[in-house]
Design brief:
The chain has a single domain (about 10-215), classed as Tetratricopeptide repeat domain (Serine Threonine Protein Phosphatase 5, Tetratricopeptide repeat, Alpha Horseshoe). Helix content is about 65%, strand content about 0%. α5 runs antiparallel to α6 and α6 packs antiparallel against α7. The chain is mainly α and about 220 residues long. It has helices spanning about 10-15, 20-35, 45-50, 70-90, 95-105, 110-125, 130-140, 145-160, 165-175, 180-195, 200-215. The longest helix is centred in the middle third of the chain and has 20 residues, at about 70-90. It is built from 11 helices and no strands.
Length: about 220
């Protein structure tokens, strides 16, 4: 299933200032990832990543083999990360660069590195629901559903009704925790809090499937 995206939060949009070269490199990098299986999506997208048709793979341990990045992808990743790493080296508290580094590594499927920079960014602005949900989703792709759920529940305490968090929380509860009722609860809250949610019909279909699962016990 192809990835869907929601618009990034205002704080994320304002922080994502990229040079033309950086944007081109990251867009090319995301496109090189190609089409892969996946359900969850990242909300704190950089402008370049949002323009690219990147998708996200299923978590480790799911039975689906994740593709290994080829040399071109690895080179593009290194090129995109290099100026951000330099910025963080010069100023360890550079929040914008920390978030962008997390995003670059996330899109490159280097989830442990992504978590490292998301954690550093959240130490500065712990209230950001996009970054915390992205960190939780990275934990999910590393196979740690418990940390994923914990991060997303914290995100909802900071921003009740946050659509990206509720969408991803539903999947992690269902597929990671075997809790279809918990998934239904998250998705119903998503539709209640966001009546104009663009993927409303899709979420309704997921709710129906989760109800079938719950009914089977």
């Amino acid at each position: 299933m192809k990835e869907t995206r929601i618009a990034p939060s205002q704080s994320t949009t304002n922080s994502a200032t990229w040079t033309g070269v950086q944007a081109y490199v990251l867009a090319s990098f995301c496109l090189l990832l190609g089409v892969a299986l996946g359900y969850l999506f990242r909300g704190s997208a950089s402008p370049a990543a949002a323009q690219a048709s990147s998708t996200i793979t299923t978590p480790q341990g799911s039975g689906v083999t994740q593709p290994s990045p080829n040399a071109d992808v690895q080179a593009a990743l290194a090129q995109a990360a290099a100026p951000l790493l330099e910025a963080v080296k010069m100023n360890p508290g550079d929040y914008d660069s920390l978030v962008k580094l997390g995003n670059v590594y996330y899109d490159g499927q280097q989830y442990a590195n992504a978590i490292q920079y998301y954690e550093r960014a959240l130490a500065i602005h712990p209230e950001n629901p996009d970054v915390r949900t992205d960190m939780g989703t990275a934990y999910w792709y590393l196979g740690d559903a418990d940390k994923a759920v914990a991060a997303m529940e914290t995100s909802l305490k900071n921003r009740p009704g946050h659509p990206q968090t509720l969408f991803n929380l539903g999947w992690v509860r269902w597929q990671g925790k075997g809790d279809p009722k918990g998934a239904i609860e998250a998705w119903q809250e998503l539709l209640k809090s966001n009546p104009d949610y663009p993927q409303k019909e899709q979420v309704q279909q997921y709710i129906a499937k989760a109800k079938e699962h719950a009914a089977r016990g």
